[in-house]
Amino acid sequence: MLSYTGHPLYDVGVATVTAFVRKRDPVMVTLADLAAVADFIEREYQREPLKSFLGVAFTTNAWFNQPAFTKQPQKRKDYARRLLRSLSEGSSGERCVFTGEPATAVAFSDKLPPGRAFRQHVPLLTGEDVINFYPWGDAGLPVAAKAILCLQAFPLGCAKCGGRLLAVHSDNPDLIYDFARAFLEYNRRALDLAQKAGHKKMPEAKSSAKTLLIVTLLEIERRRWEEAQDRRPSSVTAYHLTNSGQSNPLDERNPPLEIYHLPLEITGFLFSLVSDTYRSEWNAIAERAWQMVLPAKRKKKETDEPGGDQPRRNFLYEDLFHLPDNAPLFVRRYLLRIPVRSQREDDPRRLYSLRDEASLVSWKLTELLLREVIGVDKARIEQIRDLGDRLAAYVSGENDRRFFTAFFGERNYDLFRNALIKANLAHVKRGNPPLITLDPYIQVFEEGNEVARPDWRLARDLVLIRMIEQLYNLGWLGRNIDVLPETAESTEEKEEGF
Amino acid sequence: MKVLKIVAEGITTSFRYPHFMQGVQPTFEMPPPATIYGHICSALGEWVAPEGVQFAYHFTYLARFDDVEHTHVLVPAGGKLPGSRIPKALEGQVNPFKRAILFRPRLILYLNRPEWEPYFRSPRYAVVLGRSQDLFAYTQVGVVRLETSERAYFEHTLAPYRMALQTGRGYVVLMPRFLDYHHGRAPTFARYVVLHRRVYSDELIRFEGMEKETFWIDPTSPQEKGAHLGLFFHTFVGEYDDRPLVAGVAG
User: Fold this and answer.
1) Region A95-107: what's the mean pLDDT?
2) Do B164 and A233 touch (CB under 8 A)?
3) Which of A5, A124, A259 lies nearest to residue B19, judging by beta carbons?
4) Confidence grade of residue A259 (pLDDT, cut at 50, 70, 90)
5) The whole model's pTM is what?
């Protein structure tokens, strides 16, 4: 009956309808199922709390929201029928832009041509009659009867987030379905509670859009991991949108549409993180990245809404959207625990401390990031790890605090290099084999003879992560905790990618 | 294979998502195939038959930003123009729109039609890519002979959707593949992988049962780690394999 086409709004609608009738495969949806969805929409969209909320999806000109219909319920019923129950009404002779099937012969109001949809039927189209952006100025999009029904169901499979809808799409139908089902279940519970409590508004999601996206994706992936389902890498794209006529397109705080991409390298990374191998280390870092609730704000929230003191943003999750471009800062902030003092008061990253959180420094996570997200080849990862091991053994064995301090904090490449050469010479003079041989050194830090790689600081941070982990395990760091600087470094400097 | 290689550069461009019209107009990060078809037809000066035409490209831009445009939102109108007897056909109002713009775009386009070189040396219409005001200039036009190789790198391009699982990078997007101008610009869509970051052919994930592949490479492109730029050729019409490969099984 239904199938995914690749169009985000339509596909989310298809998944929502499928989840609503408790099926997994859209092909299994029957005419009776579609009638059940239409019944629900016709009943609930006309009353609060959905009525006012869905103005953000379909504007106040939508059939259920049209103020002029308040005294003409029969007219509203007629328009609902046209939009929700026109499956057997024949074709207008045009093809649906979403499904490629014949567009419906039914007009969605008395003023409109048959089968043509406008902004009050499909989010982010133009209003009636507007000729811009249509072939030959022929206004409206031709749609099939089942397509317009799915598009009417679409908002139920979205999260209400910041006054807008968050729709999540993927090239993997399972992910589209899982997101739509998760949001639909939340919405139906919220709808039920709101009606019982007499509330006229649907509650907002407790997290920001990007955080909610990652939180939900991690939950889905964890379940899929535990259920040992076949899993193929898939990219995820989220659409955070409002179609409200009240919204100002130039309002930076509430734009009509934002698109967030999670490419294959990030979804692959997240999928690995929910496995037993990485989960505990990752959760420990993620827990310390939630936006803090300040006392004054907590009091205000508590009076406004129950449970409103829950953190709204997770900075780690939100910074995933900037990977791999911001990999150097990501590594310093979250994996090396370098604080960022200049951030807002509610930003937990101001309080990061390598002294207190050395146990969070994880080479395992770093290696996964390098491999999955940044795409560093295996040989180079091994060189970085080996160098970290050798330097950690040297620092611990010789108790060379000065070298550790120089390696950690030196900002000048020449001085950094000199510190390494001096340590190497000292090590050899004591009758040991060289600490660092030329080839690995050049491959990690240089692109030519004595020419530093643009990302040498990132390379240094990666070696440091391995060193700190090893020194922590050896107990040396516990005995020499004062070598770790407490002052924050400026992490805002732009570094080249890896 | 001999192909036409065109390098085109401009100041700005924007590739609108077709169904997001109101208030904000995000841009695709790569030109959709339908845009490439329109561009070719503009140079040739006619709607060429799309059958058999293949293209590959490498597309970069320096930065991305939002611009505010005033769009004249037009509706049909009757009556006369004020103070005249001239019939009024349209009326409208100015609305602010936010449009995502790609700055300093650069396209290297490969076409399996070397015989079209004279048209690109002397294009029939103004050279644009994206909107009508996004003027472009051809900075190189010539014919190159592509080679096949097992070693190649792919970057800043569209990969066919079936490659998604093999690249392990990029994101999947639905794009207009072709607009049929003989039938009211009826659109067809297809899924592609937007691939920005470089991936080498030996990093492509190979599933059990897959034979070793060879790729078209441009031997005149910069050599990186012993590999040249690899090219994924696309078509505008006809068969398109939209099935991802999983463990050697299409499905």
Assistant:
1) 93
2) yes
3) A124
4) very high
5) 0.91
Query: What would the pLDDT profile of A420-437 be if each residue is shown by its tens digit?
Result: 888 888 888 888 888 887
Closest residue of B to A257, CA-based?
B24
Instruction: Give yes or no for residue B53 having a pLDDT over 50.
Output: yes
- Dist CA A258 CA A442 (whole Å): 43
Of A9, A95, A125, the CB nearest to B21: A125
Smallest Cβ distance to B24: which of A131, A249, A264? A249
User: Which residues in chain A touch residue B176, judged by CB atoms under 8 angstroms apart?
Assistant: none
Look at residue A311 in the predicted model and tell me its pLDDT. Answer: 59
Q: What is the token pair recorded at B177?
A: 């593949």
- The first and second tokens of residue A173, run together, are 């139908």
CB B4 within 8 A of CB B116: yes
Instruction: Give A128→chain B minimum CA distance, Å.
Output: 8
Compare all CA atoms of chain B with the CA of A10 and give the residue at the minimum distance: B19
- Name every chain B residue with its beta carbon within 8 A of the beta carbon of A233: 164-165, 168
ipTM associated with this complex: 0.92
**Residue B165: closest CA among chain A residues belongs to which residue?**
A233
Is A263 close to B187, i.e. CB distance below 8 A?
A: no
Query: B179 pLDDT exceeds 90?
Result: yes
Q: How many other C-beta atoms can be found within 10 angstroms of the C-beta atom of residue A126?
A: 23
Whether chain B has a CB inside 8 Å of the CB on A443: the answer is no
Q: Which residues of A touch B174 (CB under 8 A)?
A: 6-8
Check whether B246 has a pLDDT greater than 80: no
Cβ–Cβ contact A245 with B under 8 A: no
Would you place residue A1 in the very low, low, confident or very high pLDDT band (cuts 50, 70, 90)?
confident
Predicted confidence (pLDDT) per residue in A352-379, tens digit: 988 888 889 999 999 999 999 988 888 8
Which long-range contacts (C-beta less than 8 Å, at least 24 apart) are formed by B187-192? B187/A97, B187/B18, B187/B34, B188/A100, B188/B237, B189/A5, B189/A6, B189/A7, B190/A6, B190/B33, B190/B161, B190/B240, B190/B242, B191/A6, B191/A171, B191/B161, B191/B242, B192/B30, B192/B33, B192/B158, B192/B159, B192/B160, B192/B161, B192/B234
Mean pLDDT of chain A: 87
pLDDT digits (tens, 9 = 90+) for A413-422: 888 888 888 8
What angle separates helix A264-273 from helix A209-226, to the nearest 10 degrees? 60
Q: How confident is the model at residue A43, as a pLDDT?
A: 93
* A125 with B184: Cβ contact below 8 A: no
Contact B168 A233 (CB under 8 A): yes
CA distance linking residue A118 with residue A126, whole number of Å: 6
Three-state DSSP at B152 gives: strand
B75 contacts in chain A (CB < 8 Å): 129-131
- Rounded to the nearest angstrom, the minimum Cα separation between B185 and chain A is 6
